[in-house]
Design a protein that fits this description.
This protein is α/β, with parallel strands linked by helices. The protein contains five helices and five strands; from the N terminus they run E-H-H-E-E-E-E-H-H-H.
Length: 145
């Protein structure tokens, strides 16, 4: 996956809530100055306002907001949780993988969504991602896709 750099992949073993997970998933993009702090809050606010629309597959969430809400440069970061969190505290929406998307425009947003859909529509690949235990394993699963 073109947008996802290896150093933007994290694995976390702490028990978090869904808001903390979104914040942590975005941290590499904030550290690299690809997003502003306000973008993180905008992603959380979108879920509170529009519901669990970021839940795009089994155990998978794609937090994002509008480019004008704090994207400086396009980027993607992935957070794999050892302890799934319930999106909006709904036990029917457990999330193990957060893929934070910072799209600088609608084209980037759609391209990233198509790329993710192509990769993660393969059920075995999604299951491997959910059960991955290292950054290297995650990166090799998504590399070249």
């Amino acid at each position: 996956m073109e947008l996802l750099e290896k150093e933007n992949i994290q694995i976390n073993s702490q028990k978090l809530n869904w808001e903390e997970a979104i914040r942590l998933s975005a941290q590499p993009l904030l550290d690299k100055k690809k997003i502003e702090e306000g973008y993180i809050q905008a992603m959380i606010d979108k879920v509170k306002e529009h519901g669990p629309f970021i839940n795009i597959g089994d155990h998978l969430a794609l937090p994002h907001a509008r480019p004008e809400e704090g994207v400086i440069e396009k980027g993607m970061a992935l957070l794999k949780l050892e302890h799934p969190v319930n999106l909006l505290d709904d036990p029917d929406r457990p999330i193990s993988v957060f893929i934070c998307l910072a799209a600088s425009d609608n084209t980037t947003h759609l391209d990233a969504l198509m790329e993710l859909t192509k990769v993660l529509s393969k059920k075995e690949k999604l299951q491997a991602l959910i059960h991955a235990t290292s950054v290297e394993e995650i990166y090799s699963l998504l590399e070249g896709e």
